[in-house]
Amino acid sequence: MRRGWEVEYADGTTIKESQKDWKKIPKEDMVRLTLHYDGRQWDLHNKIAYVQKKRASMVPWVESSFQVESRSVGYYDVIDGKNVKIWYTVNEMTGFMKMEVEDL
Question: Where are the beta strands (DSSP E) in 1-104?
């Protein structure tokens, strides 16, 4: 099944996680960031700045043991006058989604 992030730009073009590393994609003019997980998706639209991260593990010196444990997408916002980062995280083993607000 399909897993990972997808970005859409103002001109309609999209880039998927499987196509490019997050650090190498343009961050300007993003209009949507989507997190896909086995047929489900979570869309973030028209935010000022988007972020993503993955949590993974690996047995030392055993490359084949590498596995992604969770994927997160988020954005920056202001809540009650405080700068925050809003995260949506899906657990890769269970499919459980959680939302967190991180104070900056």
Answer: 3-9, 14-16, 30-37, 40-45, 50-57, 67-79, 82-91, 97-103
The closest alpha carbon to 33, from 57, 49, 54, belongs to 49
Q: How far apart, in whole angstroms, are the C-alpha atoms of residue 6 and residue 86?
A: 18
User: Which amino acid, one-letter code, is at 77?
Assistant: D
Full strand arrangement of the beta sheet holding 3-9? 14-16, 3-9, 30-37, 40-45
Reference 32, options 51, 53, 46, 17; nearest CA is 46
pLDDT level of residue 1 (50, 70, 90 thresholds): low
Q: What is the pTM assigned to this prediction?
A: 0.85
